[in-house]
Each structure stands twice: as C-alpha cells, then as structure tokens.
Design brief:
Elements (H helix, E strand, L loop, with lengths): L17 H13 L5 H10 L5 H8 L9 H6 L4
C-alpha cells in the first residue's frame, strides 16, 4: 500500500510528536514492524486521521525498511 505518487501527501507537523518520532526511530532501527499499529495509535493521538496513513500502519501485509510512513516521519523521503 503506497500513496499515489501524483498526489502529494501533506504531513501535518503537529503529527510528528516526540512519541511518534521515537516510535518510528525504534521501528526503523530494530526493524520492529510489529509495532506499526502502535505507531498508528500515536499518530491518531497526535491528530492524524488520514485514512491512507492509518490503513498502512494497521495493515497485516509485511513491512520492511523503506516503509513510506516510517521514512516520512524520520525525514528520509
């Protein structure tokens, strides 16, 4: 599940709380993609109700380093 490359996804800076950034850094460093739903919860708590982001965080499909949500949070995209 990837965003449409022709429709830019706007990230609200308010979503990038220290909790969200810490979770994303942990997921990236430890490759602990089982915690993606927790990242989705953190984003929701920060006000992110963007359906594509939330669906991606809660997807049961395999995640890997290079995950567009984690990379966007960490500024890697």
């Amino acid at each position: 599940m990837f965003p449409n490359p022709f429709v830019p996804l706007e990230w609200n800076p308010e979503w990038l709380t220290s909790t969200v950034r810490d979770l994303a850094a942990h997921i990236y460093a430890e490759r602990d993609f089982a915690t993606m739903p927790i990242l989705g919860d953190g984003l929701m708590d920060a006000g992110c109700d963007h359906q594509l982001i939330q669906d991606h965080c809660r997807s049961t499909k395999p995640h890997a380093r290079g995950c567009w949500v984690v990379d966007a949070i960490l500024g890697k995209t």
